[in-house]
Amino acid sequence: MTTFTPAPLPFDPTSLPGLSEKLLRSHHENNYAGAVKKLNAARTQLNALPADAPGFVLGGLAKSELAFKHSVALHELYFGNLTGGGSEGSTTRALVADHFGGDAAWEARFRALGKCLGGGSGWAILEFDLQEMAPRMYIAGDHTQGLSTGIPLLVLDMYEHSYHMDYGTAAARYIDAFFANVHWEEVDRRTEQAQQIATLLR
Fold first, then answer.
1. In terms of pTM, does the model score above 0.85?
2. Contact at 8 Å (CB) between 194 and 153?
């Protein structure tokens, strides 16, 4: 059984314009590290279950493990694409502009996906779909939603804990700050890796 430990923030939390150190540290230490702790606990309990455990107990723990594992993975992707200071993302932007009708069009759609989650919870995700061999955008309303054939490229956390401390209910302003701090070089690295995997599958 793999035991997870929280990864440190991949950036100086005092260095991201529009996202306060207090917000970033709280998000990382409470929500992300909390998900790591819960994932480990769920796995420990699953590992200890007897073979004749009731189905509802097994099912409940299995669902919890999935939710916490997805939360851990998405948080690490989110913080990883927020390191800031990168390029303009030539590889990724060219790919999604071609697929979604232009650079402005894909970004407007991604922002709209984020805004429709404002005041609620969930994630806006741009990914490369290995089944369709193309990029797609979607929202995950909780941590049990996602496409098994998708490789996340750009991840936006829209749970209120990711912005409420700085922006209250002004989710659109948070999304502006997110885009101002995207590390496009990291997003391009993910895109190039996804394209390499896609080449092997063709």
1. yes
2. yes
